[in-house]
């Protein structure tokens, strides 16, 4: 009798494990991953164009832009990106820009004309019998004119210059030709100042 009791005690854990294995498995649900919602970008408000203070605060909204660059002494000088930069400045202030000759010119309520003449400035460099004439300076002269129907035209003179430098190294780094004079970006500050004179507010 004692042997049966001992055998039953030893088999009880095994019977429990067998019973648990025969129970039906509890179903589990697999949740599919969900994409996070894409945030909606709020468009930036269109800035209000600044008024032209000299015209009693008249506000222009569509500008016809014409840029003329002249380099009389340089036949193969590529034009600078003046029109593209000016158009960007005006657009950031809320002005719609129409380039000269494009469709939409009839809708312009103002016209901005920029005339610039660029000149390469050079000097002699070198020593010990080796002299090179290099174009290490440049200048721009011109004007900006803002016009609108029934208004007196506003004119802002433009002048910008740099160099020639006092010294040059490594054979002037290719500046023996006038087209390589430092024209790039020289006009930027002068044109920005011109816009500020015409509108009477910062650009």
Enumerate how many helices there are, as a single number: 3
Mean pLDDT: 81
Total strands: the figure is: 5
Per CATH, what is the topology?
A: Double Stranded RNA Binding Domain
CATH hierarchy class name: Alpha Beta
- Oligomerization: single chain
Instruction: Please state the structural category.
Output: alpha/beta
Structural notes for this entry:
There is one protein chain. This protein has 203 residues and is an alpha/beta fold. The protein has a single domain, classed as Double Stranded RNA Binding Domain (2-Layer Sandwich), CATH 3.30.160. It is 22% helix and 29% strand. The chain has 3 helices and 5 strands, in the order αβαββββα. The protein has helices at 2-22, 82-92, 188-199, and strands spanning 62-70, 96-99, 110-127, 130-147, 154-162. Strands 2-1-3-4-5 form a 5-stranded mixed beta sheet, with helices on one face. The radius of gyration is 38 Å and the shape is elongated. The model is unreliable at 1-8 (pLDDT under 50).
